[in-house]
Amino acid sequence: MDHPIKQVAITGGTHxxxxxxxxxxxxxxxxxxxxxxxxxxxxxHLANPDANQQVRRYIDQDLNRQFNIHDLNNPELTGCEQQxxxxxxxxxxxxxxxxxxFVIDLHTTTAxxxxxxxxxxxxxxxxxxxxxxxxxxxxxxLFYHPSDRLEDNFLTSVGRLNxxxxxxxxxxxxxxxxxxxxxxxxxxxxxLDYLEKVNQGETIDLPSQMSGYQFIEKIPLPEDASxxxxxxxxxxxxxxxxxxxxxxxxxxxxxxxETIPYAGDATVYGAFINxxxxxxxxxxxxxxxxxxxxxxxxx
Length: 299
Ligand SMILES: [Zn+2]
Hints:
Structural class: alpha/beta
Shape: globular
Strand content: 15-25%
Strand order of the largest sheet: 2-1-3-6-4-5-7-13-12-9
Number of helices: 6
CATH architecture of the largest domain: 3-Layer(aba) Sandwich
Bound molecules: zinc ion
Number of strands: 13
Distance between the termini: 10 Å
Helix content: 10-25%
């Protein structure tokens, strides 16, 4: 193999009120054997300790939107998370020539998304990881959002390979739930096992494609002229992540009880439906399309 994985970083608490990753990082810091493999080193980091201390998603900005190469190199961006992103870029990167090969970032969602494996690249090593974890955890969902690594604004993009975001839910912000905790722990274990097998040159039997969902766009909550929210997610849509939304299906219901239907002309799928963390930007849900994700042959 040309570029074996030597250095893996597991990060938690990128959003300070997502405690699952925070406590997994604390746990593994006390029991490093669980995340140690023979062929690479694993390092553990609390990504946003200041926000975590206040049990807030962020202090000034969403940390997981600050890792675009232009923002990292922009000296005028001095907010708390903008600065923290630069520190993490020094610690794990620099993005242009990273020290760390692979970042696994732990997140939770208030939406009913179960175990979602979010990856932003078609690189066969990363797609292979998603396929491997899904083989071990068939209930997991592949969430594919291809992007250019340098332009990508996620923490996972600071590694040499555009890494892997584990998004588990549903869970409220600011609390632990053993099911979500152990699901995340299991997914990381499989992800590390996969990297170990790749490094050892083991044959891993993976399909050439698997079904998943690709991000299309975020849909704002309806607002009035002054920017106040005037509607919420429709009860028919609540908890229906990754289920079809057909033209005319109810999307929102106004404060007065009037249904607002989906106005698109093709069937789509919802994700992050009524995600609490998206209320700061008045986002109601993400729209996804169903796709077959291809695992390109590396040989
Ligand atoms: Zn998060």
